[in-house]
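hiii, so i know i said id send this last week but things got crazy w the move. better late than never?? heres the sequnce for the chain we talked about at the cafe, plus the structure i predicted for it. fair warning i was half asleep when i ran it
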Amino acid sequence: MCTPQCVCEKLGGLAFEEAIKAGKYVRHYTKNLQKLKDKLKDLGDCMEIITTDVSLANVRGDEIVVNVSRWQIDAKKLKADIEQLIGESTIKASISCIACSCPNIMWRYKFSKQSEENIADAVELIGKYNNFNRQISHPRSHYAENLQKLKDKLRDLGDCRETITRKVSEANGRGDEVEVNVLHWQTDADSLLDDIEKLIGESTTKADICSTECPFPDITWQYKFSKQAEEKIADAGGLILKYNNFNQISHPRPRPPELESLSDKNYVNFDSRASIFKDIMDALKDSNVNMIGVFGLGGVGKTTLVKEVGEQMRKDGTFKQVAMAVVSKDLNVKEVQSRLADSLNFEFKAKADDQERRATELWNKFTNGDKYLIILDDIWEEVKMEAIGIPCTIEKKGCKVVLTSRNEDLLSTVMEVDRNFSIAILSSAEAWTLFMKKVGNSIQSQLEIKSLAYEVCKRCKGLPVAINALGEALKGKQEHAWKTALNKLDKYMLTKIVGINPSVLASLRVSYDMLHPVDAKSCFLLCCLFGEDDEIPLDELTRFWFAGSFLAQKPCTLEEARNEVHTVVDALKSASLLLNGNDENVVEIHDVIRDVGISIAREEEAFLVDHGAFEWPQNPPNGPSYSAISLIFKNVNGHPEGLVYPKLHTLTVVNSELSDLEFPDNFFNGMMQLTVLTISGIRMRRLPSSLAKLKNLRMLYLNECELDDIAILKDLKSNLEVLSLSDSCIEALPPEIRQLTSLQVLDLRDCDKLTVIPRGVTSNLTSLEELYFPENFDKWCATTDEQQGTSSRENLSLEELRRPLSTGKLTTLHIYIPDVMLLPKEDLIFANLKGFKISVGSKIKTSEEISGRCMLKLEGVALRNEFIPLVDKAEGVVLSEIESLKKVFHDRGVGNRFLDLKYLKVKSCVEDLKYLIGESKSSVQSHELHRVQSFNNLTVLIIKNCKSKYLFSPTTAKGLVHLEYLEVRSCINMEGIVAFEGQNDKDEFTSEVKFSKLEQLKLEDLPNLLSFYAQNVKTGTTMGSSSVCAQPLFSEKVIFPVLESLTIEGLDNIITIWDKQSIAVLEEQGSFCHLTDLEVRRCNKLMHVFLSNMHQLLKNLMNLEVQECKIMKGIAEFEEEIDEDGLKNEVCRFSKLRTLILLSL
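okay and structure toks below
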């Protein structure tokens, strides 16, 4: 036994209280040892059961619950610790003290303390074991396998989505309309791909090791993941199956009504031509007539008449489409094919030079079962219809042809038309009426002038082209001017031009003589250098005007020249010497007027115009040397040498078919006065060395050419101001271009193969006013180090534009920026631009039909401040997937903004705005003074996939006085196109909104739309909440006086289109009275399309299509109405209805 002295010595190192505890541990050593052995046995029993259950689970293939796996690890470690401690007790506890025979008290103290801790741990583990409730495992989740399958499906579905996106983009580029099921598939695929990517992303974190203490993954989460993965895999499989079953991605859009019209707004319906007009229409309706001819003098009005016939027969449904092409003297089959295709909105699959395949495509188009009218205007020789692709035999009754010519025999004998119609000159009375319409009725009271006017009108011989030109020329003139005109008419009547009536020649010559200022005459003669029936771009006229020898005084800048050109062109149009083109940026010239102009230019200015040339011309032996030559070769041959034109200032050479021609080095030696040179359609390996000697050359066009080496252009650095390589095949711009420091225009549009534009080109060309990059050029050098990985190090960077933009020298810029990150960090100053076509993130597509001098497209970018001035100035804007839309339309107000905007498309901008466009009246009252209504020139508005609740406030809607086309699609939050939620302005809430020029309206996939003009009227419910009252789609608060086409699709909240109580008001307003086409699809709450009392309102309806309206009971809702005779009236008459399509009802 230990002596007291021994015990005190062994425990003496402890504090008093700790020593007391140690004494207890020593005293209870044996008891603690037994407890430890008991807990070891209990823990072992639990472990044995758990091990057995885990083994059985593994045999079943189940996954072990993660808490069980952790428990096993903890239990195994604790069991080993307890066994080791008990083993030590058999040795160390029996060792005696050195001083006496007592046990090792210090070790027993430590053992008892450690055993109590192990006993507590064992109790805790046994408690956890009891809480397992036998839930040891669950069926295996196949996590890894499902994860890999999910990744595979993500890849497969992504490939399908990429293919669909590419095909949809191609369809949009063609202007086709994408199939609805394809659009729905895209939406579903995008959503599913996002879900799968998120799920896979979570797998990299949640399924990993849970903690440093536990090396096992979270099996419970893996099980849940596998269930979700299996669902997503099945969904992806379903979408891939749908993808494989797509028969087509898109179909051609119907031609817009505004492009269908052939009618001339100045058309006058003369009594003498009424019978001819009717006879032509009757002949075209005759099943035995396939081809008719219309002949008469040049300028008698043949073209105007047949255009009006075509327009009337298209409108009355006789023909589905009317195609027109001007043939002219030099028949070019490929050009005629292209013009017909353009007028049909038809795109060839064959290449432009494959005339036979294009003919086959047109033939198939014209024999597809629909009815087509084809007008070939101004033919001068036999036209082989089969070569063009026009079927006009008795067997092909769906296609009929109208030919116009000055030659009756050509039509009847050569072309063998079924019927021939002569267009005679106007009667004296009709000629006088037309003449008075031009000069004004004020001369009726001026007897002397009136008598002179009679004589002048008589000299016009009843020819409208002469009457219009002379009438405009003499409008407002004094008596002496009338006398001078009459004298000149008699003089010029002696002049003859083959195919032109002397009266026409004399009249047009007098009109030319009376032009003021002199620059108007120069501009008119310049227009005669362009091809017959060509559209003449005003920008091109401006460049000729600026660089050529056509002006009395040269303008200082291109912008000045452009303003002068527009002024003079307006004067020429007023004088009826020029015509409006298809858009405001081009003009046309009547072929008769052009012929007279060429005659004048040849006589007065020594111009030569040969647009069917076979050889290079020589100077006339007895006449003045040519000052301007315009040649169009069908296929240029030979190597011209020794041509001497010492006074030549303008030379244009166009080759209709691209061919090789090596100009001899001395070609330009005899043309040292050249200031304007244009060459098109020639393949040249190098430019002739004599080009470098043209020190007066100020404008050089090398368009539609194949070019290798153009470095010689550096020698033109002293005077060259305009350089265009448009549509030419060139891969690299030579560095020498930067030496052209006088250059004011550089045009590289449509140089699709151009990939290298060296650094310093724009920064060195300090005189540049207009810069046009290719629309496909995207090889920009980075402006920061971060961008170097995705850019070309050799090319110029956007930073080089900073100086010309900031100084205001550069006024026109066409550019495509594929990535906004390529822009410098510091904003560029675009505010000084007066003309631009800028696209960022995505190119402007032809299907977007944007036209004008200022065009902007932003896609997938944050809206930087530098773009805001462009939005304000633009005539056409496309905003797609951009951020900060509120900054555009709201933050800066809309007063006095968007005044030039004509085309606006907003797509996939998810910013949540109450009103997408404009402001309510109350928000702009403080700015009312001197405020111009914004958007007042907007003609086309397209909204897709936006989150706004409303599109316009009434105030904004009232300002849309020129809106012609409105499309709103796939806006799931939109409740009203027009709406007002204000409380204080009753006028705003109750006033009418009139869309006075809206012709086409499309409302598609707007599931929450309540009404076009939504009223915030609510009803109470039993639970104390409220719901919005059902409203008709259209009420008397919105007026559509000229609407022709209406499409409604996917409007799930609409139960009625029109309100029965409003029909009388709508009739009085004239709303919907011009509606000809109505399409209704997928309106799942709509029971009827029409009300029984509205057939008078829709009296002009011609085409009706109703599809997939699930609960529709009938097209018209009939109620018992009593007519004047007291009889029930249950008839809804649509007397002009031609097409009725009812599907899936």
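btw Residues 29-60 form the longest helix (32 residues). thought thatd interest u
miss u guys!!
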